[in-house]
Amino acid sequence: MSYGVALHVWGERACFTRPEMKVERVSYDVMTPSAARGILEAIHWKPAIRWVVDRIHVLKPVRFESIRRNEVGHRISEVSVARAMKARSTEGLALAVEDDRQQRAATVLKDVAYVIEAHFEMVPGRIGPEDSEGKHLDMFRRRATKGQCFHRPCLGVREFAADFALVEGDLPSPHPTLLEDPWRDRDLGLMLLDIDFANGRRPKFFRAHLRNGVVSVPRLDAPEVRG
């Protein structure tokens, strides 16, 4: 059994990075399902539930801009983190940002707004006596209404924070210029769907189509999903 929600999210900039771009960041045209799931989990997540994104509504025209961003050149490896956890010591985990800063160009989205339609499913084997569908649905709605979150949700990268609001009635209307825009129906190409954490953390892709301003998202185990 599943329980659905709708969440309006928006922000000044977004970058849903295409994984095939190795040197400079280039954003997908619209929000990816994995980014949408991350926003939902930032508001409410427990081991007993799993978020599944159903549809992403695009509310504003797609506009890109090029910027330059400061990034750290490397990251601490998982092996180092595992070694530190085993030794119960953080020695050797330090990363000096000032010594490893790089400036890179990025092609990002400007002035974005979406509605995420999603539902959650209970996860067998992780449901405790205190868990119930109604409880988690109420918790999400209450937290989203009050603007509460475990951490600030973002639009692809941390510096592009996402504002959000629970949708309880009709969905917000798209920007007037979108109603006559032929861009509302187009093939978006292969898009990252999500990471299959149950099978070796493999990335999964799907052929994304924007139809009347809406991207319908297949399930991770759907036949058309690749990866």
Automatic annotation (TrEMBL):
Q: List the InterPro entries.
A: CRISPR-assoc_prot_Cas5, CRISPR-assoc_prot_Cas5_N, CRISPR-assoc_prot_Cas5d
Q: What is its EC number?
A: 3.1.-.-
Q: Which Pfam families match?
A: Cas_Cas5d
Give any single GO term for biological process.
Answer: maintenance of CRISPR repeat elements
Keywords in UniProt for this one?
Antiviral defense, Endonuclease, Hydrolase, Nuclease, RNA-binding
Enzyme's top EC category: hydrolase
One GO molecular function term of this record is: endonuclease activity
User: What family does the Swiss-Prot or TrEMBL record give for this protein?
Assistant: Belongs to the CRISPR-associated protein Cas5 family. Subtype I-C/Dvulg subfamily.
**Known role:** CRISPR (clustered regularly interspaced short palindromic repeat) is an adaptive immune system that provides protection against mobile genetic elements (viruses, transposable elements and conjugative plasmids). CRISPR clusters contain spacers, sequences complementary to antecedent mobile elements, and target invading nucleic acids. CRISPR clusters are transcribed and processed into CRISPR RNA (crRNA).
Protein name (Swiss-Prot/TrEMBL): pre-crRNA processing endonuclease
- What is the scientific name of the source organism? Microvirga thermotolerans
Phylogenetic lineage: Bacteria, Pseudomonadati, Pseudomonadota, Alphaproteobacteria, Hyphomicrobiales
Q: Which gene encodes it?
A: cas5c
